[in-house]
């Protein structure tokens, strides 16, 4: 099995560094309604900076041949509630 870093180095010529004038589409898939909060997350093509959902990545790879993607996945973090749920009893305005 090949090393992932060797695979990345061999495809480094296709990776572009974004400039301030480039638009990076990372909020939603350009073909479907997948977002980073979707089940598979989003994959950003590092040559065109277009976002693709889990189902559309293979289509983009076959079309462009780009092998390097940035995977963005957001998950909700459960926050423990440390304080008690006590409602205020008095409202002081101007005191």
TrEMBL record:
Residues of the Ubiquitinyl hydrolase variant UBP zinc finger domain: 15-77
UniProt-listed Pfam families: zf-UBP_var (PF17807)
MF (Gene Ontology): hydrolase activity
Entry keyword set: Hydrolase
Keyword Hydrolase annotated: yes
Presence of keyword Hydrolase: yes
UniProt-recorded name of the protein: Ubiquitin carboxyl-terminal hydrolase 14
